[in-house]
Amino acid sequence: MDVLTSKSASDPEGYLAHPVNAYKLVKRLNTDWLELENLVLQDTTNGFIANLTIQRQFFPTEEDETGAAKALMRLQDTYKLDPETLSRGNLPGTKYRSSLTVGDCFGMGKTAYNDGDYYHTVLWMEQALKQHDEGEDTTVSKVEILDYLSYAVFQFGDLHRAMELTRRLISLDSTHERAGSNLRYFEKLLEKEREEKEKENSINKTVTSTEAVVQSGAYERPLDYLPERDIYEALCRGEGVKMTPRRQKRLFCRYHDGNRNPHLLIAPFKEEDEWDSPHIVRYYDVMSDEEIEKIKQLAKPRLARATVRDPKTGVLTVASYRVSKSSWLEEDDDPVVAKVNQRMQQITGLTVKTAELLQVANYGMGGQYEPHFDFSRKDEPDAFKRLGTGNRVATFLNYMSDVEAGGATVFPDFGAAIWPKKGTAVFWYNLFRSGEGDYRTRHAACPVLVGCKWVSNKWFHERGNEFLRPCGRTEVD
Prior knowledge:
Helices cover 41% and strands 16% of the residues. It is globular. By secondary structure, the chain is of the alpha+beta class. β2 and β3 (280-283) form a beta hairpin.
């Protein structure tokens, strides 16, 4: 414990960059702390007890622990990591190694179970059982694990395996009432299934779907609300990027002076094409390390869970598809904010007078923002009505940190993946010159696998840019 404390205290950001370390810390300070409280409450020293109670309010909550568990599952799915890999902490780019205990795996499985997520319940209860069978010392009993696992397997319609697991449970605890009633129920269902087969004269046909599941030993991940889930996650892993040699030849590097902006003539920015159509460019050395640290210092006290606007009600609310913390900085907050804003104006040739405030976002453990549009569509015309500046014409995204693994910005529609690089920025237009939305710019921030991702962005709006970016001759210019 002393070694653990020394490591985490000397480099807290580096230590918590490993998602397993982050999950275990949240779990210790939420679940395990209660046990410590109960132990020390036997101490009659009032001052000690009062201090313990005061500190508790700053610790993670049940919601935080659930969120941390779900973040690990998100990483597991997106980057195709099996529970064994996560449990052993074998992740790329990690400085501090950590592993999950039987109790940790059991906690992951319970979180999934309570959320009605039987797919992850099975995966993590199986891992807990595996480590238990290997002789790991734990306070969690096999009976508890088998109780959850057998029911989760049953939810997949796998009666044979559910019965097998329940029988194993009963062999360990013959007095377990729920297991006994479950076994009788499973046997009745299986008998009913056999009778139906006989009636249909299908006894000699090929193995049934239920038996096929048992033989494969795995269950398929259920489909969800995101139609491009597979494409999005593949791009996050660096797979399916549609950068062909032909397209590569159309991409160039150059010095950018902002259309001969006086401020950039002597010191132009290095500009690199990331994609040809839609045109996405990356600028180098946009922010210095000192500016980045100052922006982060200003943003940290104001960070709050990022919200999204409900398209039906227009009300800002938190959502599972956007997991990050953000804050907004004004030019009056510090000269560095005004300096960075002015620099973005010089690079893009667009005015910041009608742009939104500088948004700073931090993506921690499993932090992500699933595929979304930055501009408002026709079915949500009032999204930016209160601003009175029209739609979001362009996005300027500053990368304020390197990320050890994960955290790419991906565009599922045309198969692009852009990886964070500290001090650089990417820029693209969300609207055609006609004002019509470019639906190809639907993009996502991939979950952070290892590390801590910091970004800041500026959304430029239509008003004030009519003559700086005039209309084209066609709808898609």
